Amino acid sequence: MNKPEFHIFVCTSSRINGTQKGYCHSNESTEIVTNFLEAIEENDISDKVMVSNTGCFGLCNDGPIVVIYPEGTWYGKVTPDDVLEIVESHLINGNIVKRLEI
User: Fold this and answer.
1) Which of 64, 76, 57 has the alpha carbon at shortest distance from 26?
2) Which residues 6+ apart lie within 8 Å of 36 measured at CB?
3) Does 6-100 carry CATH code 1.20.140.10?
4) Where are the beta strands (DSSP E) in the chain?
5) What is the pLDDT of residues 11-48, one digit of tens each?
């Protein structure tokens, strides 16, 4: 893979030992990752976008957290249903989803 234009980090409450437990994990963050992967593939932008799951960002009250680089845009309280809007608005059209931005 070439260097991606966008790198999406999704908190899945991953621990160093590989287990997943915590606020984001218990609020469908793994489904959020899956939805990003599917939406990216469906929109034929997989050569431009990389998705990684992460450990805790420390903002559990705003979780699940999604961070998109290179802009450094932080989204909070993301649900699996928000993913397509983020992909279409932010990644394809270059518009931050203001209602989710933190």
Assistant:
1) 64
2) 8, 10, 51, 83, 86, 87
3) no
4) 6-11, 49-54, 66-69, 73-75
5) 998 767 766 667 888 889 999 999 999 999 999 999 99
